[in-house]
Design a protein that fits this description.
Elements: H1 8-16, H2 18-35, H3 47-52, H4 56-76, H5 83-108, H6 110-113, H7 118-143
Helix pairs in contact: 2-4, 2-5, 4-5, 5-7
């Protein structure tokens, strides 16, 4: 049997879970963007988001930490039987959060002005991607770590 080349495991993890890696990276990027100086959520598209939830600092920390935890779980995936459950929790946070962001952006733009914003579709697709990621992680928990 030939020895595995360096990085082969990472290549396989990226290929099998590329959508999860992307979604976790977007989550970290969103958290970092919210953490930048200025009030990102002052945009009219996020008016409902500001009034419905806590402040920007909270969401910057929540998205940054959840995305970072997802990236860590993906990196160590397979070395511990608990990582699929961490991946499921992160994807659940993502699906709920992105779904809520899509809904609130839609309410603030299309609902108020009749004009949709591109974020509506984008955040909705991120929510769907995370729903798919929940099923991928559940499959891994069931069949990779019985």
């Amino acid at each position: 049997m030939a020895a595995a080349r360096p990085g082969e495991r990472l290549d396989r993890a990226l290929a099998d879970r590329g959508l999860e890696w992307f979604s976790a990276a977007v989550m970290v990027a969103w958290g970092l963007t919210l953490a930048l100086p200025g009030d990102t959520l002052d945009d009219p598209a996020f008016a409902a988001f500001r009034t419905a939830w806590t402040g920007e600092v909270f969401w910057a920390a929540a998205f940054g930490l959840a995305g970072g935890a997802r990236l860590a779980a993906l990196y160590v995936n397979g070395r511990s039987p608990r990582t699929p459950f961490a991946r499921m929790a992160g994807a659940l946070f993502g699906a709920l959060s992105w779904g809520q962001v899509a809904w609130l952006v839609t309410a603030a733009t299309w609902g108020a002005t009749g004009i949709a914003q591109t974020g509506t579709g984008l955040y909705g697709l991120l929510a769907l991607a995370d729903l798919f990621s929940i099923f991928r992680a559940a499959h891994d928990a069931r069949y990779q770590h019985p």
